[in-house]
Amino acid sequence: MALLLTLSLGSCGYHLVGHGNGTGGAIPADVKAISLVGNADAALLSQLRQHLQSDRYTIIDAKDIDDLTTHAMLHINISPLRFTPSTYDASGIATQYRMIYTGSLMLVKEGKTIWQSGAISSQGDVYVAGGPTSIEASRERLLQDLHKQWLSDAVGRIRSGF
Length: 162
Hints:
Order of helices and strands: HEHEEEEEEH
Number of helices: 3
């Protein structure tokens, strides 16, 4: 029964979003160079560049484009960090804050969007205990963890094409 359902969906043109073929994910096989652009900070761009290194394509600056037919631009859009109270004590004072790091990716080739990641989000909680120095240190550690998690999720989406 499952086989019949799969065959009928495939024959009518139904397919999952993304490439998911395991070879290049979101990046088409004819792409030989990729540029990273967007509002991400230099550290995130550098880490993303390291994770996306491939024998199939090179990562170049946008100003170094020489062939538009084999070039794609990966747009990185990072939303402002959200840091909002999520738990309160009996007197109404916040005792826990939720930090949410969100962004999205879009791959553009020859002026056309060929893939979008949708929202990629990582979140965690900071517990308010101790003084301001302790809270700020916890916040910085959590931000680093969320940054790593977001980067891992983003690279996973690019590689899978979903």
